[in-house]
Specification:
Layout lengths: L6 H9 L50 H8 L6 H7 L12 E7 L5 H11 L6 E5 L15 H18 L4 E7 L4 H13 L5 E4 L5 H4 L4 H19 L3 E4 L18
Parallel strand pairs: 1-3, 1-4, 2-3, 4-5
Helix pairs in contact: 4-5, 6-8
Amino acid sequence: MLILASPRGVSRRAAGLKTLAILAFGVLASSLASIASADDFVYSTDPPHRMYMSTAAGMPTAFPTPSQCVALFGLACYTPQLMRTAYNIPAGLTGTGQTIVIVDAYGSPTVREDLAIFSAAFGLPPADLTIVYPGGKPTFNPMQHHNEVSWASETSLDVQWAHAIAPDAKIVLVIAANNGGNVLNNAQRYAIDNRLGQVMSLSFGANEGAIRGHGNANNTQIAQAHDNYIAAQAAGITVFASAGDDGASFSPGPWVPLD
């Protein structure tokens, strides 16, 4: 799965381009998955659109421009170089000596292969990717948990575009066994306590209205997340949480492609 940046990918990865340290709880504009119980909530992710290209009539033979993508797919798309240019990233700023921690749920069985194809397609150096399973490696079974496919797409998006923006940085992918709030909080705490990297990136969330709407466990999970980010700050770890694309309650707004 090779992913060109689309509007849903741009805002998430844009957070990682800033040099300003941001500590934030990931309350995103993603749709809420089914509630596990009356006193718990789960996080969902906003996976990218997959656009299949070929050399058929009307299809570009090279990577399409943002406007060509709009004409072909109804969405803009961007290459790594376009993104680096859009955010005015100096050519010499490549992430050397840094490690980016990415936290996702479920993971993807093809994340390494996807990343290798992405790197080769865009002329990026091979990625230094380590995968960690703090709660044990989950069995990837989309038939049992339908949202695992969305998380697999998100996992590929996260590692590919972290590598595109910081091609010389190491990447540590921390996979939570499921998308429960407590489980994802624990995965983040593992990364913090073990000093897995200098930057931690999060691209998941829940409808804001659901966070305090399903019992006391939600408040406990919010407190747990707060403690995590205080600990991250004390450890000198910068935490980035995506702002989402659709507002606090998943209400899409207009967007404009960048050519």
